[in-house]
Amino acid sequence: MGALREPKETYCGRTFNGEDLNLIREMIADCMGLSRMELANTVCELLNWQRPTGKLKAKECFDFLEYLDEKGRIQLPEKMKSGRQKGYATRIPQTAQGDERPPVIGTVKDFAPITLRVVKTDDQQLLWRELIGRHHYLGFKVPFGAHHRYLIEAARLDPPTVGCLQFSSPAWKMADRDDWIGWDADTRKRNLQRIVNNSRFLILPWIHIKNLASTVLALASRRIGKDWEEHYAV
Q1: Which regions of 98-142 does DSSP assign to beta strands (E)?
Q2: Domains identified in the chain, total number
Q3: In the chain, which stretches have pLDDT less than 50?
Q4: Which of 1, 9, 10, 45 gets the most CB atoms within 10 Å of its CB?
Q5: CB of 115 within 8 A of CB of 212?
């Protein structure tokens, strides 16, 4: 007699099978540092749960995860305390730190060493948000799921910040990416949490340092794996 199949769950018009539920459990275990809403956004991306407009069904997914938790089918992390009010819009600061400056021209050698500073403090978060919000063509958006941010710094400049980086959770399905790697559906499911997406990369518009971008990407490729593992245990 074969093993019993896990019962399906239907929620807001979508049916989730045993494979979907196992994927949700694996994602929760792999990303223990995320809040419940971050988990909901990540599950939406992984399972491609979207509205016809392409917008993720994050609220429905959040409620679905809590429903599964109440039934004992998954175990969510404890709710995080937050003073942020519902409906509060993410504000892009407008300070002198983000104002355009005179051009900085030269080579990496002229301003070395170039370093990546992990964004940790509130002040660093605000600076990163302002620079991306004001100077990146995609602007600032609260990322879905896990993410890791850096300020790019040149030691011989004052202030030293010359750009920003962000790595985030990968999309569940990307045909070109999966074909290039050589993934089928099962391989993607096993290995998706082993890759990250470079979702923001900004060199400030007044910075004209030859080979800076390639230097930054080389630095990032050498440390993002270790930093991501330390932060998310993945």
Answers
A1: 104-107, 114-118
A2: 2
A3: 1-3, 83-89
A4: 45
A5: no
Complete DSSP assignment for 144-211? SS-EEEEEEEETTSSS-EEEEEEEEPPPS--HHHHHHHT--HHHHHHHGGG--EEEEEEE-TTEEEET
pLDDT at 1: 40
What's the confidence (pLDDT) of residue 89?
44
* Predicted model pTM: 0.65
Residues 109 and 162 grouped into a single domain: yes
Regarding whether 62 and 162 lie in a shared domain, the answer is no
Instruction: For residue 163, give the nearest of 125, 112, 201, 108 by alpha carbon.
Output: 201
In a domain, 107, yes or no: yes
Q: How many CA atoms lie within 13 A of 141 on its CB side?
A: 9
> 109 and 24, same structural domain?
no
Structural domain span for residue 56:
9-70
Residue 87: what pLDDT? 37
Return d(Cα 177, Cα 60) in angstroms, integer: 28
Residue type present at position 179: D
The pLDDT value given to residue 120: 92
> What integer pLDDT is reported at residue 233 of this predicted model?
66
pLDDT on residue 82: 52
Confidence at residue 230, expressed as pLDDT on a 0 to 100 scale: 84
Are residue 109 and residue 146 in the same domain, yes or no?
Answer: yes
